[in-house]
Amino acid sequence: MTKDWKTRTQLVHEGSRRSQYGEMAEAIFLTQGFVYPSAEAAEARFLKAGEDEFIYARYGNPTTRMFEERIAALEGTEDAFATASGMAAVSGALMSVVRAGDQVVSSRALFGSCLYVLEEVLGKFGVHVTFVDGADLNQWRAAVTPGTKAVFFESMSNPTLELVDIRAVSEIAHAAGAIVICDNVFATPIFSRAVEQGADVVVYSSTKHIDGQGRALGGVVCGSREFVRKTLEPYMKHTGGSMSPFTAWLHLNGLATLDLRCRAMADTALQVARALEAHPKVTRVIYPGLPGHPQHTLAMAQMGSGGTLVTFEVKGGKEAAFRFLDALEIAKISNNLGDARTIATHPATTTHQRLPQNQKDALGITPGLIRLSLGLEDAGDLIADLTGALSAA
Ligand SMILES: *Cc1c(COP(=O)(O)O)cnc(C)c1O
Fold first, then answer.
1. Measured from the CB, is residue 338 less than 6 Å from ligand 1?
2. pTM (2 decimals)?
3. Which of 113, 154, 335 to mutate to test the pocket of ligand 1 (most atoms within 8 A of CB)?
4. In b/e form, how buried is each residue of 1-17, taking b as 16+ CB within 10 angstroms?
5. What average pLDDT is seen over the chain?
6. 316 near 367, Cβ under 8 Å?
7. 201 by DSSP, 3-state: which?
8. Ligand 1 center to 205 CA (angstroms)
9. What integer pLDDT is reported at residue 2 of this predicted model?
10. In what order do the strands lie in the sheet with 179-183?
């Protein structure tokens, strides 16, 4: 559609397709397949499907296509492919690119399932994966060689919110001829400028901020038309990780309010970070939006925001952290993020429970650490809930 639309206009209208009924809201095409007017038409469509022509929902569907076009416009890529979950997006982006004998360089601080795909799945098929400390450019320089096929990182790590310098790492990767795949979930598509900063492929779990209400698993891979349709799509459509039309409909509606929600959550995150910093029961606050954060300048240049999550450490270790969690009234104990409801997570005993102690230590996952995903509640109510629970800790 039009290239001049600003983000909020794109998020409401981009990619809309209306049937002959002229429905206002996006239709859910809950259909596995499509009927051809003639045998000749079927043959022609299998030879080359046009813009508004579909063959099978695993290959594409009008509702899913609306979601793909809307998110591609937002991210600033030529195209996108919607997937059944964030992990289908991550594994598809990686698996469609590599072959046995290739080398991949990745940051070490990864979502557990991303680590499994890189270590176990790629490893099993003969791909060599080198892990580096994502914030240390010298380690990237040393690990990326002319034989490197792809570079992978989460632009903001979980749970300690460490940033990878997308521009600098992309320059290192491109000089070696490697493709840059960026998992941008924590940065959100609203604060992302990853493509402008050099990433070739940007991956989201749309389960998080895009859904925004904790309803459905989904994911999306954004990139050039060449990459999405020639490299990724054949892999995805034949291996089966496509998004369901119902999820696409939910996540399309999530996109309409995404800008408003992410900005409101980030405003609250900054207020909460400041309140926690001032609290005597808190020993450390990690929020890249705070001027004292070691990567504050990078966060502002890369995202223009500190994001929607705040991580902090409660004085008194695991016992105090559990007392804090159990005393919360508004914030929920869970492990999703980007939800309208504020969510508090204790990484050491949940999301990162299985990591060996030395890796927990290396990633800064201490017994008192809490990760907060700020929701859409009133910031004052949330601060009262959090500080009240801290007193109980
Ligand atoms: C949640 C998440 C994923 C996986 O997404 P699912 O939708 O749960 O499959 C991948 N990467 C990051 C950074 C995530 O937070």
1. no
2. 0.96
3. 113
4. eeeeeeeeebbeebbee
5. 96
6. no
7. strand
8. 5
9. 54
10. 79-83, 219-223, 201-205, 179-183, 148-154, 103-107, 128-132
Amino acid at 380: G
Q: Which two tokens stand for residue 56?
A: 């099978």
- In tens, the pLDDT along 311-344 reads 999 999 999 999 999 999 999 999 999 999 999 9
Give the closest residue (by CA) to ligand 1 atom 1.
Answer: 205
Per-residue pLDDT tens for 270-280?
A: 999 999 999 99
User: What are the residue boundaries of the structural domains of the chain, listed by start?
Assistant: 7-256, 260-392
Give the CATH fold of the 7-256 domain: Aspartate Aminotransferase; domain 2 (3.40.640)
Task: Tell me yes or no: is domain 260-392 CATH 3.90.1150.10.
Answer: yes
Measured from the CB, is residue 217 less than 6 Å from ligand 1?
A: yes
Phi, psi of 131 (to 5 degrees): -100, 140
DSSP one-letter code for 349: G
Number of the ligand 1 atom closest to the C-alpha atom of 217: 7
Atom number in ligand 1 closest to CA 185: 13
Question: And the tokens for 274?
Answer: 């400041």
Say yes or no: CB of residue 376 within 6 Å of ligand 1: no
Ligand 1, atom 11, lies closest to the CA of 111
- 64, 216 in Cβ contact below 8 A? no
Q: Is the CB of 210 under 6 A from ligand 1?
A: no
Expressed in angstroms and rounded, the spacing between residue 132 Cα and the centre of ligand 1 is 20
Instruction: Decide: 374 and 269 in contact? Cβ < 8 Å.
Output: yes
